[in-house]
Amino acid sequence: MCDFSLQSVRSRPAKVSDKLVTRDFGTGTRGFSAAEDLGLAVCVMPGTELAFADDVACLPTGLFRWNAKIANHRTAIFRQINKDKMVAHHDALEFPDGRTVLLTLLCEGQAATVLQLPAQPATAAEVDAQKRVTYVG
């Protein structure tokens, strides 16, 4: 259920009101863990709405890498991107301004709450949009 890079980690699906923490699982990616059990990955479905305790902080990139970037948002919708690429990170957050950031680029230790799970799909296109990438290396 989680992205391929978390297949070797204990996991469970997200539920409404779950308390999550961004965590580096030592698998080459970051993801969400359960706040009460940091070793348990919580798999989030595309379309899930999240609220963060603080403005979301992302890892620094580019030439000046000493300051974390702040997204200036506390809410986001979980998405999957790069679905056509087998060897790529797929889990991402879409912010209210339309910007999308890979989940693996978030700073570790940020608290979030699951506000709402995606609606049940009614069309084939909605089913496809909620389908998680299932590539196995």
Q: Count of DSSP E strands? A: 11
Distance between the termini: 15 Å
Spatial order of strands in the largest sheet: 1-4-3-2-11-5-8-9-10
Q: Approximately how much beta-strand content do the residues carry?
A: 35-45%
What order do the helices and strands follow?
A: EEEEEEEEEEEH
Helix coverage percent = under 10%
Gross morphology: globular
Flag low-confidence runs: none
The class by helix and strand makeup works out as mainly beta
How many distinct helices?
A: 1
What gyration radius follows from the Cα positions, in whole Å? 14 Å
Major sheet: size, sense and barrel closure? 9 strands, mixed
> What's the rounded overall pLDDT mean?
85
